[in-house]
Write a structure and sequence with these properties.
This protein is an alpha+beta fold. It has helices at residues 41-56, 69-75, 82-97, 141-148, 165-177, 188-195, 201-218, 238-242, 261-268, 274-288, 295-309; strands spanning 17-21, 24-29, 64-68, 99-102, 105-106, 109-110, 113-116, 118-126, 132-139, 183-187, 224-229, 232-237. Helices cover 41% and strands 20% of the residues. A hairpin with a 2-residue loop joins strand 11 (224-229) and strand 12 (232-237).
Length: 313
């Protein structure tokens, strides 16, 4: 999240980028189809969530993730008609074609490496109409090592409801730098650099002010409130503001469930990806801020309520 690897543009971005921070550098080179975008990153987030869920269950994991395309589209708040599947194919191509050269440390090891964000994306099953049904995505060693070393951060479930690329990038930076702190401040100029925006200073400030005004009116940015104080952008964690102290709240232990509960969850919410539902439920439980007395029963109840509200099967 520290380095702006993904493009904010909705049009093909074919510029080579190089970012330096101290002794660390990241150089990003696009394919002829352009850099992977902030929205393409959804595919990566979804794959990571599947692997993290498997690790939490004590299951062995590999770089290759098999998933249902429909589940991915639903989980990332995308349309599930032909446009959604076509967009997914294009995302696979940009993710595979974007090349990163870096000396970033992952898993406790510093190494120079050049690689794609994913190594491969393969359709392994299609419908009779030729629409992708199941796909296999092979992550790069760099991404996989970061997962195994637990160097990934969770995102709020409403992250996928943010449609503007700049909104998503700003939230990612707040999640990275503010985290569980009450507040984080950054200059507009440095925020623009971290976002990887190529807009003029004036245009970036205008776009930023639009996001700030929308957040003031609708509180639509997850986890954090965004305000502009002169040339300083201020992020305040909403949970810290709610308790009135502004101090870091006590650590909340995320409720865990037994491995066999997943099978019961599949019966409670047929058609749903239960690992994604589990991540949603954990986020909801953390938002409540109180201990869950019976996590397994509570999660099953959550799945039943979701199925009742929006049945898939």
């Amino acid at each position: 999240m520290e380095h702006p690897i993904f493009s904010l543009s909705t049009k093909p971005d074919r510029r080579v980028r190089r970012y330096e921070h101290g002794e660390t550098f990241v150089e990003v080179t696009p394919s002829v189809k352009g850099l992977a975008t902030v929205h393409d990153r959804d595919v990566l987030i979804y794959c990571i969530s599947q692997l993290i869920a498997a690790l939490n269950e004590g299951k062995p994991v590999t770089k290759t993730v098999r998933l249902k395309a429909y589940d991915l589209l639903r989980a990332t708040n995308r349309v599930t008609d032909g446009r959604g599947y076509d967009g997914l194919k294009a995302a696979f191509e940009r993710l595979r074609g974007t090349t990163i050269s870096t000396n970033i440390v992952t898993g406790g090891h510093e190494e120079f490496d050049t690689f794609g964000i994913i190594d491969r994306a393969r359709i392994v099953r299609e419908t009779r109409e030729g629409r992708m049904q199941e796909v296999e995505i092979t992550l790069s060693d760099w991404v996989f090592n970061a997962i195994r070393a637990n160097e990934v951060l969770t995102l709020h479930r409403d992250y996928f409801r943010l449609r503007k690329p700049l909104e998503r990038r700003i939230y990612e930076l707040a999640r990275k730098h503010c985290g569980m702190q009450a507040e984080w401040r950054i200059s507009v100029e440095l925020l623009q650099k971290k976002c990887g925006s190529i807009s003029t200073d004036k245009e970036f400030r205008r776009l930023l002010m639009t996001i700030v005004r929308h957040d003031e009116s609708f509180d639509h940015v997850p986890d954090y409130r965004i305000r502009l104080e002169g040339n300083i952008v201020v992020f305040r964690r909403r949970a810290a503001m709610a308790d009135g102290s502004g101090a870091k709240p006590p650590r909340f232990e995320v409720p865990m469930i037994a491995p066999e509960t997943y099978e019961a969850a599949r019966k409670a919410a047929p058609g749903y990806d239960v690992h994604f539902l589990h991540a949603e439920w954990q986020a909801w439980a953390c938002d409540q801020g109180t201990a869950v007395k019976h996590p397994d029963r509570a999660f099953i109840g959550f799945c039943k309520a979701r199925h009742k509200r929006a049945p898939l099967a």
